Amino acid sequence: MFEFDQFLGFIMFLSILTIGFWLLIFLTAILPYWIGGSLIERLKENKKRKEEQEQESA
C-alpha cells in the first residue's frame, strides 16, 4: 500500500492540516474575544480615572 516514506509524508500532512485547522479556530474565536475583553477593561479604567479626576477637581 504505502512505503514508509510515503506514510511519514502522509502523517506529516495530516499533522500540518490539523494544526492549521486549530490555529484557524483559535484566530477566529478566541483571539477576538480576548482583544474585545481587554478593550472593555481599558475603557472601564479610563472612565473610572476620569470620574476620579472630576471628583478631585470639584
Give the structural class.
mainly alpha
> Which outline best applies?
rod-shaped
**How are helices and strands ordered from N to C?**
H
Taking Cα atoms only, what radius of gyration do you get, to the nearest Å? Answer: 24 Å
Structure notes:
- The protein is mostly helical.
- Helix content is 93%, strand content 0%.
- It contains 1 helix and no strands.
- The longest helix is centred in the middle third of the chain and has 54 residues.
- The protein is rod-shaped, with a radius of gyration of 24 Å.
Structure in a nutshell:
With about 60 residues, this protein is mainly alpha-helical.
Question: What topology does this entry show?
Answer:
Layout: H1 4-57
Structural features:
58 residues; rod-shaped; mainly alpha
